[in-house]
Amino acid sequence: MDLSDVALFRVIASVSSLSAAARQVGTTPMLVSRRLAGLEAELGTRLFHRTTRSLSLTPEGEAFLPHAVALMDARDSALDAVSSGRSGLSGVLKITAPNVIGHSVVVPVVAELIADNPALRVDLALSDSVIDIATAGLDVAVRVAEMKPSDMIATRVADNPFTLIASPGYIARFGQPATTEDLVSHPCIKLHAMDTWPFTRGGEMHRVRIGGPFSANTVDAVRSACIAGVGIAMLTYWDVHEQVARGELQRIVLADVEPREVGIWTVFPTRTHMPVRVRAFIDALRDRCLPPRMQGLV
Question: What confidence tens digit (pLDDT) does each residue in 243-277 have?
Fold first, then answer.
């Protein structure tokens, strides 16, 4: 079996389009179709339902996908093993991360890895949506969430507590709330994914329903509106640490609740055959997110 055709199958499965797959690998849709047909002939089954408008995995394709992932992981591990005597990391490291943390944390990490490892290439996809990394053919996802290690194949690399923030100008004009009861009387900037704001009270989850004149679907937009003085916002430490350090935002502490803790996690498709470059990235990310950086905010 030609592993390059298996790799192409993963690309097609991730983009659900022969044309898009052709653009991604730098060839023509006709050649992609021929190679897929050859792989199907070798396996003796159809891997995709194909019409003029859509492309989707057949049940056999769904069954073959995890095996394709395992084959490519094994290939990467083999390449790592035979190149272990070379200087530094090599190959392509494919990562997905949320937009803000991707810019402020992940990009500096991979920039240092590339500087130290000239043979390494990094493909970073920034998205606030949850991407199926196995189907997309990615090595690792960086996610901000409340997760248990058993939820998926993941490792926690840093604490990332929620924090209330407002601009110095807003606080000068309107003051700041002292309790959750005070908070509901202030204009709050809502992230679409958070209808309520999570706190901890007496060890239990305590949610507060907030309202205000502005809501948005990205952390960037909420943070910008907060800096502009529109209202109070709730974001995580790594979303706002730079702005707090510069004095563009100030932290608000409520007396009757504590910030809800979430974490920065790395999620990967398999624990076996993990390429050395993935382990190196996770270690570098953990080093950058060491607790001393969080002093003053937790």
Answer: 999 999 999 999 999 988 888 999 887 666 678 89
Give the architecture-level CATH label for domain 87-158+262-298.
3-Layer(aba) Sandwich (3.40)
**pTM for the predicted model, two decimal places:** 0.65
Nearest to 136 by CA among 94, 106, 100, 107: 94
Closest C-alpha to 265, from 164, 165, 151: 151
Intrachain domains 1-82 and 162-261 with the same fold = no
**β-bridge pairing 258-259 and 214-216:** unpaired
d(CA 273, CA 72): 9
- The residue among 129, 92, 84, 87 whose CA lies nearest residue 110 is 92
With vertex at residue 176, the alpha carbon angle to CA 173 and CA 187, rounded to the nearest 5 degrees, is 75
Name the residue among 150, 122, 154 with its Cα closest to residue 141: 154
Task: Taking the CA atoms of 286, 289, 295 and 296 in sequence, report the sign of the dihedral they define.
Answer: negative
Please give the Cα distance from 231 to 233 (Å, whole number).
7
Which residues share a beta bridge with 166? 250
Residue 62's identity, in one-letter code, is E
Environment class of residue 220 by beta-carbon count within 10 Å: exposed (0-12), middle (13-18) or buried (19+)? middle
Q: What is the pLDDT of residues 11-58, one digit of tens each?
A: 888 778 888 888 877 888 899 889 999 999 999 999 998 877 778 889
